[in-house]
Amino acid sequence: MARASKLVLMLLLPAWMTLLCTSASGHGNSYVRDACSVTHYPDVCIHSLAPFSQTAKRNPTTWARAGVSVSVGEAKIVVQYLIKLKRYGSMRGRNQVALLDCIDCFQNTLDNLHKSLGVIRKLNSKAFVTQMDDITTWLSAAMTDEDTCLGGFNGQKEKQVRLLCNKVLNMSYITSNALALVNKLATIGPGSLISTDLP
Q1: In the chain, what are the domains?
Q2: DSSP codes joined into one string, 103-158
């Protein structure tokens, strides 16, 4: 009888674990979809922020911080890519000038994102309004620099240029989404502030 019970348990355990994981995943998807509903590019938002679902859940402070943190990481990747293109010297003429300008723009973008992340890590109720104003200003400036980078390649159709522009465009979507999450937090106010273990 004991052996039969053990056999039944062994057969049912995988199904039970699968059900638990599916349920947890479903909640996670719900959290990130709810958070990303305020953004202009929800599909990009869901893809980039899904790993934060179980940590952030329904807290706008954590989602805003996650959005800015992901933007910093993505900007670093783009900067490395642009510097690599410069090192290889594969762009000539107008495109080379546009690439150099784009590198400058993205250095500014990265600076503004770092400043935003530094402040969002130290949000407090007394300085909340000023802090949110600073963050939205820096994120908006980052988006402007990203647009400026794209503008330098306007009308160019080479494969390498298209690839570069796609990377920058995706970065602009991520920054836009971060700004939307920050704006949502600003609208809600300092009552949602919590400590968080996010980077």
Answers
A1: 2-192 (1.20.140.40)
A2: HHHHHHHHHHHHHHHHHHTT--TTTHHHHHHHHHHHHHHHHHHHHHHHHTTTT---
Q: How far apart are CA 47 and CA 134, in angstroms?
A: 27
Residue 94, pLDDT above cutoff 80: yes
163 to each of 62, 116, 151, 167, how far by Cα in Å? 32, 28, 15, 6
Q: Rounded to an integer, what distance in angstroms lies between the CA atom of residue 197 and that of residue 199?
A: 7
Q: In whole angstroms, what is the distance from residue 133 CA to residue 135 CA?
A: 6
Distance of CA 56 to CAs 31, 81, 121, 162, 192, Å? 8, 30, 14, 35, 12
Listed residue (176, 172, 149, 174) closest to 161, CA to CA: 149
Rounded to two decimals, the pTM is 0.82
